[in-house]
Amino acid sequence: MQSNRIPFLDLVSPHQELKEELVGVFSHALETAGFIGGPMVEDFEKSFAKFSDAQHCVGVGSGTDALRFALMAAGVGPDDAVITVPNTFIATSEAISQCGALPRFVDVDEHTCNMDVNKLADYLAKHCTQNDANGKLVDKPTGRAIKVIVPVHLYGQMADMDAILELAEKYRLAVVEDACQAHGAEYFSRRENRWRKAGSMGLAAAFSFYPGKNLGACGEAGAVTTQDEHLAQKVRVLRDHGQVKKYYHEVEGYNGRLDSIQAGILRVKLRRLAEWNERRRECAARYNELFAGVSDLLTVPFEPSWSKAVFHLYVVQVPRRDEMMKHLANSGMGTGIHYPIPLHLQEAYKALGYRQGDFPVAEKLAPRILSLPMFPGLSSGQQDQVARQVLDFLESENRSHISYEAPGVSCQAGTPGLQ
Q: Which pTM value belongs to this model?
């Protein structure tokens, strides 16, 4: 690899650093034949529950399993509806559909890209009605009972949980956090006057440990966190074929268990997660400095005062995103798009009847968002290179009279390139 090439994500270096400990996990599994369940899974569950300020953690096979099992344990089933957002990975809505329920979308805030609480309030007030017979909240367009709200803590920043929880309480709904990108993210609760961790505020939360996450396994893995012991036990039963003990099945469940080796790997990495998250925050702050002079051309992530994001992704907004992405690729810079097509416009959900224009903010964001390189080992020099190429592109687009100054990088109007 050429020295000037910068990957979007570096999954090699941290594993090289931790290689001896990670190999030790595998060796222990071979020596004990502890491949499914057992002490390594239990130790990780206890550690991650403590990290997330939750009473319980249940390890499962993937983040999709985690959200599906959490919803099922919360009582979601056929003929129900669940409210979430359209600008997320399809696993969010898949988990809803696989419970037999129907995803219903509300638009997002154009600054945070997370669920717009005003749009949520408007939907609950105008598009739902209380069933006189049983008191359930009914989604008028579909006739389905709404059970749960699923806010997605997108890109590593928590949604406005106080406002969402207040609406949930008003309408007697549960909240299940999709925290699959938010390991360690924090939210200042004005109601409680204290900081709260992702995964600790809703009835339950789902985490993914896909390799590219802030806390990633060396394969598939996930977890449900909750303060509710009864819900945690339901998830334990669901993940293991519905059995409370071997061959005694209370319900028809799933094969959604967390492998012991993956749990052991996650336990090793969890010790470094706070450090890695802080390094991501530092990288995000430096990017913000580097792009401070072009705020009229490029929008950096917005972080409210009540948020401590962990920057799973560093997502900017730019016109002519695809052209910039191509320019960066030609310069050896890795990038990504999260996500190019909102869920309501995906072919998979054509039957839901949504149309272009139904969620204008999500649709406006989709062609503008670009994820820049972000990982704990990203160096200042690498960030300077990324910024230099971004500014080169903006200049080449006939955007003259840019005045740009940042540590290690500078650009003046009329100057050919960056100095």
A: 0.94
